[in-house]
Amino acid sequence: MRIAHCRLALVMTLLVGVTTASFAAPKPAPKPHGLDLAGMDRSVDAGDDFFAYANGQWVKSTVIPADRSNWGVFAMLAEEANKRTVGLIQQAGKSKAAKGSEIRKIGDYYAAYMDEKGIEAKELRPLRTELQGIAAIADKAALAHFLGSELRADVDPLNNTNFHTDRLFGLWVSPDFDAPNRNAAYLLQGGLGMPDRDYYLGTDAASTALQAKYRQHIAAILKLAGLSDADARATRIYDLEHRIAEAHLSRTDSEDVHKANNRWTLHDFSAKAPGLDWPRYFEGAALSAQPSLMVWQPGAVTGIAALVEKEPLAEWKDYLTFHAVDRASPLLPKAFVDENFKFYGTALTGTTELRPRWKRAVEATNAAMGDAVGKLYARHYFPPSSKAAAQKMVGNIVAAFANRIDHLDWMAPSTRAKAKAKLDTLYIGIGYPERWRTYSGLQVDRGDALGNARRSELFDYRSSLAKLGKPVDKSEWWMTPQTVNAVNLPLQNALNFPAAILNPPFFDATADPVQNYGGIGTVIGHEISHSFDDQGSQFDAQGRLANWWTKEDFAHFTAAADRLAAQFDTYEPLPGLHVNGKLTLSENIADVAGLSASYDGYRKAYGGKAAPTAQGLTGDQRFFLSFAQIWRSKFRPEALRASLMTNGHAPGEYRADTVRNIDAWYAAFDVMPERKLYLPPAERVRVW
Q1: At what angle do helices 357-381 and 102-114 cross, to 10 degrees?
Q2: C-alpha–C-alpha distance, residues 220 and 559, integer Å
Q3: pTM to 2 decimal places
Q4: Average pLDDT along the chain
Q5: In sequence order, which ranges of 407-448 are alpha helices (DSSP H)?
Q6: CA angle 337, 131, 266 (to 5 degrees)
Q7: Which helix (H) or strand (E) holds 169?
Q8: Percentage of the chain with pLDDT > 70?
Q9: Residue 615: left (phi > 0), alpha (psi -120 to 50), or beta?
Q10: Distance CA 78, CA 482 (A)
Q11: What confidence tens digit (pLDDT) does each residue in 450-477 have?
């Protein structure tokens, strides 16, 4: 079995060479962590509500911070990562590094964002060129060129369901579905200011109230920008976005990769999606030389192109003006910042207080120069010992997953061989990438916050275009080391586990291994499992979109997936609003399979036996409680509603209850048939 690992010596050489500044040494490692016994609620039976049993007291005593829409382990670790990162960024700003160096750019980007007085004094002048460009659009051909010039690189639709963009379309550059050794361009639906089409199409009271608030927000932005007749314009802009939303494919349909595998030549666009001057659009987007593009949602592209022709030019110019100002609002004077937060923070997610500016500045700097900051983070906060311990866990869990494949009695030998081949060629990155991205072409001006953001966005777009038609780098990372998350990349058959998630309660290199297997081990197993979930299972060992299953095997897999979707459909976090089992299916499959594989890996680490009793709990109990405690979380009602509508992940409390599908959990907590979470053995979902 081959597992690709980062070349530590090379990366450390690069880390040492990135800076001439003197940075403080990391703090001493904390004492090994254990389970949070005080956060449990033992008045709840584990078999009735395992999330509450593991986290009930924490939920009762925890107050969501005013600047957060939700709070939990991921958010707490992100706060810690921000505190670590801001120290590194601020020291970069104080360094005497040469102008144009990465260290200088990091410091200058952050300083420009923090310069509230300078931003206030400039008013709307930083937007003048863009607004003048919109005002100068004289016809639909010029409109098409402008729309193309606004195309930007979008996020990965296979790994983040929130892939809308307020620009008319988005671009994603990634391995070709049919030839995964080279990069292709994918065009995605866009054009909405709210997160999803369902926000526009919903007719319930909560939806209509939010629609009214969004129209008010559009009008408020136009008034702040000094435009006349703002209310009437806002109504027309909203109505245009509503029509765009009607053309959009649903999130569930968008996750069907077979519906996304549509290769159009540039000439096809005019015939298949008439209404938009596509030659002018592609000219503006610098895509004229591309022989073809993959169209992820062809119906949406056709519908939106028709709207470009149908709707009056004046309405499109108002729409573009609003989005130009709205998009820039976080880097405009305070009145714009406040209005931006009033809608996108309070109305959408229920957050009551704007995050401190330094946190927003850290987020912006990470977004613009994530790898440059990541070098510093990895150097100071992810020692070689942590990397080695995590790699050892990965090896055990991969071996456990392989063993599970070997013992699937329903899988045909031909399917099993291809599944094992996919596992053998899986690239797993731990902590940080082998090769760091460089920012030599990015201009950063200490006195131009908005300009920096716009140049960074364009820099990212051009970097994406430069990859088109080129060989795929299987080891390329899609997350920065300071990100608290993990990702599976089906088209690369690769995983990334950033350094920032490799912290307690997920991971502690000095802790009892059972804690780590219940924590980060289940996350590792989860991400490995994504290669075999309802989406990942459709890609072969090379990342090609191909059917490698027998008909009977895929039918068995699909039946198990359908039962899991139905299980999650029964959960009702808010009155009348259920978890969408289909939308969250990929993540739920990965949770079940990852928990199973990590349990096997944990037992392997202890020579096939349970871990010793500690903290008054057996080894198996500690394993499952560690898993449940990484999913502790609380949501504001507005944020929970938004998550249920748009997020491919179920709320944490239901992810913790995944244990009801694992036989060993029943034995560990003596769960009897009368308990609410009890499932008869035949009804427990066993995917892998």
Answers
A1: 160
A2: 50
A3: 0.89
A4: 91
A5: 413-424
A6: 110
A7: strand 169-175
A8: 94
A9: left
A10: 8
A11: 999 999 999 999 999 999 999 999 999 9
Q: What is the pLDDT of residue 22?
A: 34
Q: How far apart are CA 427 and CA 476, in angstroms?
A: 10
**Distance between CA atoms of 377 and 81, rounded to whole angstroms?**
9
Average pLDDT over every residue of 619-639: 96
Instruction: Check if the beta carbon of residue 442 is closer than 8 Å to that of residue 456.
Output: yes
Query: Which of these, 321, 356, 311, 318, lies nearest to 337 by C-alpha position?
Result: 356
In contact, 365 and 110? CB cutoff 8 Å: yes
SS3 200: helix
Q: What is the DSSP string of 348-381?
A: HH---SPPPHHHHHHHHHHHHHHHHHHHHHHHHH
The full length of the chain comes to 688
If you search the block for the tokens 């009145």, which residue do you land on?
Answer: 335
Region 114-123 average pLDDT: 98
Which residues touch 36 (CB under 8 Å, ≥6 apart)?
58, 505, 629
Q: What is the pLDDT of residues 133-153, one digit of tens each?
A: 999 999 999 999 999 999 999
Query: What are the tokens at 80?
Result: 């810690």
Instruction: Give all domains of the chain, ordered by start, each with its CATH number.
Output: 8-14+383-435+473-683 (3.40.390.10), 71-123+362-381+437-468 (no CATH), 125-331 (1.10.1380.10)
pLDDT at 14: 24
186: β partners: 172, 294
For residue range 173-193, list pLDDT tens digits in order: 999 998 999 999 999 999 999
Q: Rounded to a whole number, what is the distance in angstroms from the first to the last CA of the chain?
A: 19
How far apart CA 276 and CA 285 sit, in angstroms, is 14
CA gap 168, 24 in Å, rounded? 45
What percent of the residues of the chain are helix, what percent strand, and what percent coil, each to the nearest 5? 55, 5, 35
